[in-house]
Design brief:
globular, S-adenosylmethionine decarboxylase, alpha+beta, 8 strands
């Protein structure tokens, strides 16, 4: 099945063969990913960006952040700049960003793609509410994004959920 390219977006070829229903033909890579002791038998060395901390091994930290009674949620340039600065302050590497404005309320949805994963935001200016996702692996420190979000959007309240992604128990 051919996929149409979207302007401004990079289309990547499928990395796995798929059957007629679009399902991956092989799941061998899942078992390899879940086994921290897996060895690469190829000539090139494989890098592992899973995190080992406090006796746990996991893919990365995913923060679910809600900003309540926040400001400047209808300003896409301010939002993009703030998310990029937050990523940099967390020690992440920015690869690209893409933002969209919704009318009539000028809500903004966008993503900053990182070498370490992503930061995304969805805003509801009419409710003074923003929902952010911060997912980072490797050496990046996602909690360091929160002070930037507080400064940039001046929320009266912030709620936070922290999830360890890829935690194999």
């Amino acid at each position: 099945m051919e996929r149409a390219a979207t302007p401004g977006r990079t289309e990547f070829p499928d990395s796995e063969p798929h059957d007629e229903q679009g399902e991956a033909a092989s799941t061998d890579w899942v078992d390899a990913a879940l086994t921290p002791d897996s060895q690469d038998t190829g000539e090139t060395e494989s890098l592992d960006f899973f995190i080992e901390k406090d006796g746990q091994v996991y893919a990365g930290t995913h923060l679910i952040i809600d900003l309540w009674q926040a400001s400047r949620l209808d300003d896409p340039e301010h939002i993009e700049t703030s998310l990029i600065r937050a990523a940099e302050e967390a020690g992440a590497t920015v690869l690209s960003s893409d933002f969209h404005i919704f009318t009539p309320n000028n809500g903004v949805s966008g993503v900053v793609v990182l070498a370490e994963s992503h930061i995304s935001i969805h805003t509801w200016p009419e409710r003074s509410f923003a929902a952010l996702d911060v997912f980072m692996c490797g050496e990046a420190e996602p909690m360091k994004t929160i002070p930037r979000f507080k400064e940039a959007f001046a929320p009266k309240q912030v709620t936070l959920q922290e999830i360890k992604r890829g935690l194999h128990v």
